[in-house]
Amino acid sequence: MFSYRRTPELPTREEALKGRAEAQFSLPERHTVLGNPLAGPYPEGLEVADFGLGCFWGAERKFWQTPGVWTTLAGYQGGYTQNPSYDEVCSGQTGHTEVVRVVFDPSRVSYESLLKLFWESHDPTQGFRQGNDVGTQYRSAVYTHSPAHQKTAEASRDAYQRVLTASGYGTITTAVLPATDRPFWPAEPYHQQYLDRNINGYCGIGGTGVSCPIGVAPADG
């Protein structure tokens, strides 16, 4: 996992690579761990959340291990290039960050609980990096799918900022934005559930050790 740019900098829409109208690959049909379809449409009653917290290999595993999560996908979001490739995203010329799409059953796991996992699984104060991984593709982001999720995500950011500040950390740099007009582009098949198929594969995920004061326990069932 790497970046081609020494000093990470987001491109403008005009500077970004144009991409292509169609994907260059087909997604696998099913999740290798959860067994459910990767691509939508998803069953009625499920909800979608998109999180960027550094390298998506380890980030995806965090979420597929969470009870109540129905499926997960690694992908790219928040940029301008249509159907980008991994190399293009790593070049810093698409504007995307690596994200995990989480499809979940809100009767079993709350959005607040997913946000708590998100905040505690990385350092959201690092800007265009996570640990030794440097580049715009590693920036922290939450892309929301409803006004209620937007409000909840903003409140969770503010709550976590207070405890981070008290623990000596800086300002959260996480983008909390609606997914509208910020399409999710699935990553190549070899990225999907990468750490299930490569048990000794690279994982750069690491949190601050500071507990986020939000979230409720998942309901039974």
TrEMBL record:
It catalyses: L-methionyl-[protein] + [thioredoxin]-disulfide + H2O = L-methionyl-(S)-S-oxide-[protein] + [thioredoxin]-dithiol; [thioredoxin]-disulfide + L-methionine + H2O = L-methionine (S)-S-oxide + [thioredoxin]-dithiol. It holds the Pfam family PMSR. Keywords: Oxidoreductase. Signal peptide: none annotated. The keyword Phosphoprotein does not apply. Its EC number is 1.8.4.11. Residues 50-203 form the Peptide methionine sulphoxide reductase MsrA domain. The active site is at 55. Has an important function as a repair enzyme for proteins that have been inactivated by oxidation. Catalyzes the reversible oxidation-reduction of methionine sulfoxide in proteins to methionine. HAMAP family: MsrA. Belongs to the MsrA Met sulfoxide reductase family. This is Peptide methionine sulfoxide reductase MsrA. It comes from Streptomyces polychromogenes.
